[in-house]
Amino acid sequence: MAKIHPKIPTTTTSSSSSNNYMTSTRETFTVWMKSLVFHGNGCTVFDSNGQIVYRVDNYDKKCSGKVYLMDLRGRVLFSIQRKRLQLLRGWDGYKWSGSSEVKKDKPWFRVREDVKNNLRGNMSFNVLLGCTDHKSNNGKGRQYRIIKLAGKSSFRVIDSDDGLVAEVMQKQTRKGVELGEDVLTLVVEPKVDHSLVMALVTVYGLINNKL
C-alpha cells in the first residue's frame, strides 16, 4: 500500500474535518481502482494523510446497474443508478442521509452523455446538480461538465463558467514515475463537496467499465 499512497506530511486540511466533505483549501486524494473486499470490484480512496475516506464495493459483480459510494465505515453517501435511455447513456445519483435515501423519487444529480461532442470525438458528459432543490434563478439546477483528457482514466470536471471543479489523472511518484492505470490522483478545488465529486468519479469509472 505504501507505493500507492506513501504517508507524506502535509499541511492540507483533511477531508475528515468538522464540515466533513468541504474545505476551504484544495484537496488531493488517491483513488485506487480496487476494492478492499477479496475478489470484489470497486475502488478505495485515500486522503492526503493516507487515510481511507471513501470506498465502492461491488463484490462479485462488475459494471452493476446500481452501486453505492460509502465512507470508511460503510455508511452510504450516494447510490448511483444507470438509466436505460433510448439515445443517451445516463446515470442518476441519489443522496443518502443516515440509512436511507433523501428523496427516492428524485435524484440529487443526473449525468447524461453529450452526444454532439462525443460524435466529434471529444468525449464529455453533462451533469445536472441539485435536481431535488437548490434551483438557480432561471429555474434550472446548477450544471457541471465531465470532460475526458488524454489518458484512459484522466478527466476534468468544470462548472457552467468553465471554472475548474476537480481533475483526475494517473498518479505519479515524487520522481515523476507513473504508477499503474488503476492508481489515480484526484484534485478537488476549494469549497467543493468532495463526496459529490467522488460520486462523479464513480460514474466515470462505470462509464469506462472500471467498477
What does this molecule look like?
The protein is mainly beta and 211 residues long. The chain is 9% helix and 38% strand. It has two helices and 13 strands; from the N terminus they run E-E-E-E-E-E-E-E-H-E-E-E-E-E-H. Strands 1-2-3-4-5-6-8-9-10-11-12-13 form a twelve-stranded antiparallel β-barrel. A hairpin with a 4-residue loop joins strand 4 (66-71) and strand 5. The protein is globular.
Question: How far is it from the N-terminal to the C-terminal residue, by CA?
Answer: 20 Å
| Spatial strand order of the main sheet | 1-2-3-4-5-6-8-9-10-11-12-13
Order of helices and strands: EEEEEEEEHEEEEEH
How much β-strand is present in the residues? 35-45%
What profile does the largest beta sheet have?
12 strands, antiparallel, barrel
- Give the rounded overall mean pLDDT: 82
Structural class: mainly beta
Q: Give the overall shape.
A: globular
Q: What is the compact description of this entry?
A:
With 211 residues, this protein is mostly beta strands. It has helices at residues 115-119, 194-207, and strands at 27-32, 41-46, 52-59, 66-71, 76-84, 89-97, 100-101, 109-113, 124-129, 143-148, 155-159, 164-170, 183-188.
Essential attributes:
12-stranded antiparallel beta barrel; 211 residues; mainly beta; single chain
